[in-house]
Design a protein that fits this description.
two-stranded antiparallel ribbon, 5-stranded mixed β-sheet, alpha+beta, disordered C terminus, 7 helices
Length: about 210
């Protein structure tokens, strides 16, 4: 396959993202972790793929590397798309935190958080629903402390308070969180209880 004009030999079962990174081609991500199954939530890793004269935009973390594929990772169109996605994510990304991977990316792509905020308003929470904390927690503890709760615009991360004893010796969710919402001591206090979130949903979540 070809990535940005370079011939790259992909291994069997690899995704475009994995093949690119192994070849030293960096594709930005927010919800991807090489220790976890691809999730495809953030779409920041979108690339252009061409095959048989047809071009489309796909999430590189989920798209399989194939013979004859031509991949472009950094076109003006892709940068514009990533910029818009980051502006959308910033509606719930919370205030900027020093060292936050998410906010570094916002600055890198010249995204303007106020552009959409002035039109639709934002939600406090510092959470972009990348799912990294939930998936990492399930992988590490085998009995997740964290889970998704709610639907639609009311979807959020919540925790099982009776399981937070794991958190004292873990800290994995804090390390993978791209916004800096989860402190090193764990998610207790950062997220509501799942039992709180299990109360009857408002009409906007139906």
């Amino acid at each position: 396959m070809e990535i940005d004009g370079r011939v790259v030999r992909a291994r069997e079962g690899e995704t475009v993202l994995q093949a690119a990174r192994r070849a030293g081609v960096e594709i930005p991500t927010l919800c991807y972790d090489e220790e976890l199954e691809p999730y495809g939530a953030c779409r920041i890793c979108m690339v252009e793929v061409e095959r048989g004269g047809r071009t489309r935009t796909v999430a590189s973390c989920c798209y399989p590397a194939e013979e004859g594929l031509k991949v472009r990772t950094d076109t003006p169109e892709l940068r514009s798309l990533r910029k818009t996605l980051l502006e959308l994510a910033s509606l719930t990304g919370g205030p900027e935190k020093e060292g936050s991977r998410f906010w570094r990316m916002v600055r890198e792509y010249g995204a303007d958080p106020s552009r959409l905020l002035s039109r639709v308003g934002g939600r406090e929470g510092e959470c972009i629903l990348c799912g990294l904390c939930v998936r990492t927690c399930a992988s590490v503890t085998q009995d997740g402390v964290l889970a998704f709760a709610g639907r639609g615009v009311e979807r959020s991360v919540a925790l099982f308070p009776e399981k937070t004893e794991y958190c004292r010796v873990c800290g994995h969710c804090s390390k993978v969180c791209p916004t800096g919402k989860i402190p090193p001591e764990g998610p207790a206090g950062a997220f509501p209880s799942v039992y709180e979130r299990a109360k009857p949903l408002s009409k906007s979540s139906i």
